């Protein structure tokens, strides 16, 4: 019975975060036990995080720990009192631009916290360790679409550098201790319950409140926007398929220019945005584009949600949640 419980128990860090909430919910809906960890930090509105948690609390299989992955003793307490079979690490200090403002928060969460979890994986002998990487690891790469085999030694942000460091740290632990690790390079994730610092949220909030939007690189950037449900499909598939040490792109496999993205939002809202056309921000890249052939072959990953549908689903949630 204990072994069966361990097999069904997943420790999800960042469980009150955007992706962490959705992954936790999917796991709970499919009969898993989720040990959720989150420090509810104030990088953005903690009330949004608590609202996400409120939707997870009714599940019998959910237990929440308000702890920080930087706290090794707290992590040890959780692992010593719970039979954790798999780790899904979605906790991190997020945001490319914020890494120019508070670089040390990235060191603490993305490096020290990540190392703590690798140590827990080693000590507990977990069956699988899946973690969030990012398309930011591709940095100054200009060969499109991005492939997992591409060079990733030219980061243009500290955030991207920490995510690449995670991949190298995971490789070392896989090699030394035979811990199955899988890094998922997420490409511009959006959808209901999304982060307030992401483009779709910022644009919708500004347009609905009659404020101008900041359009960097004068709208000429291209992004591979990926809907949250598709990201969850890929993440859960990775949790169910342990690999000795792997990396996968999880993207929509199509790029959209920022101005086209804004046009879709305007059409769905029935309002035109007032636009501040600005130069490229430090740390940004002109384009992200995912080659997902490897994810298709090994994870059965296939994005299903069109950008227009995804924007519509987000706006429906936003209007309900904020009474807009």
Task: Tell me about this structure.
This protein is an alpha/beta fold and 324 residues long. The chain has eleven helices and 13 strands. The mean pLDDT is 95. The chain is globular and about 55 Å long. The strands form four sheets. Strands 3-2-1-4-5-6-11 form a seven-stranded parallel β-sheet, sandwiched between helices. The chain has one domain: 3-Layer(aba) Sandwich (Rossmann fold), CATH 3.40.50. Helix 2 packs parallel to helix 3 (46-56), helix 4 packs parallel to helix 5 and helix 9 (258-269) packs across helix 11 (307-322).
Assembly state here? single chain
The total of helices stands at 11
Strand order of the largest sheet: 3-2-1-4-5-6-11
Give a quick account of the main beta sheet: strands, pairing sense, barrel closure. 7 strands, parallel
What does the overall shape look like? globular
Total domains: 1
Give a quick precis of the structure.
This protein has 324 residues and is of the alpha/beta class. Helix content is 43%, strand content 16%.
């Amino acid at each position: 019975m204990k072994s069966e419980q361990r097999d069904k128990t997943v420790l999800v860090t960042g469980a009150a975060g955007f992706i962490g909430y959705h992954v936790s919910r999917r796991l709970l809906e499919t009969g898993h036990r989720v040990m959720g960890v989150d420090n509810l930090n104030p990088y953005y509105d903690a009330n949004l995080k608590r609202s996400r948690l409120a939707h997870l609390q009714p599940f019998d299989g959910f237990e929440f720990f308000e702890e920080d992955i930087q706290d090794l003793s707290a992590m040890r307490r959780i692992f010593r009192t719970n039979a954790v079979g798999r780790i899904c690490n979605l906790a991190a200090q997020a945001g490319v631009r914020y890494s120019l403002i508070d670089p040390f928060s990235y060191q603490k969460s993305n490096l020290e916290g990540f190392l703590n979890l690798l140590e827990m994986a080693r000590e507990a002998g977990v069956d699988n360790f899946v973690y969030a990487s990012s398309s930011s690891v591709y940095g100054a790469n200009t060969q499109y679409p991005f492939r997992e085999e591409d060079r990733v030694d030219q980061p243009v942000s500290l955030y991207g550098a920490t995510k690449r460091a995670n991949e190298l740290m995971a490789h070392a632990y896989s090699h030394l201790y035979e811990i199955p690790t899988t890094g998922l390079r997420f490409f511009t994730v959006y959808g209901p319950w999304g982060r307030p610092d992401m483009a779709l949220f910022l644009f919708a909030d500004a347009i609905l409140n009659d404020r101008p939007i900041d359009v960097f690189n004068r709208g000429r950037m291209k992004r591979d926007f990926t809907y949250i449900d598709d990201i969850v499909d890929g993440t859960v598939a990775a949790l169910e398929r342990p690999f000795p040490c792997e990396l996968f792109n999880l993207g929509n496999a199509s790029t959209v220019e920022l101005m086209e993205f804004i046009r879709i939002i305007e059409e769905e809202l029935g309002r035109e945005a007032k636009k501040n056309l600005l130069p490229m921000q430090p740390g940004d890249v002109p384009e992200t584009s995912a080659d997902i052939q490897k994810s298709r072959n090994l994870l059965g990953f296939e994005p299903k949600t069109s950008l227009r549908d995804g924007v519509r689903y987000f706006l429906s949630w936003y209007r309900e949640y904020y009474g807009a």
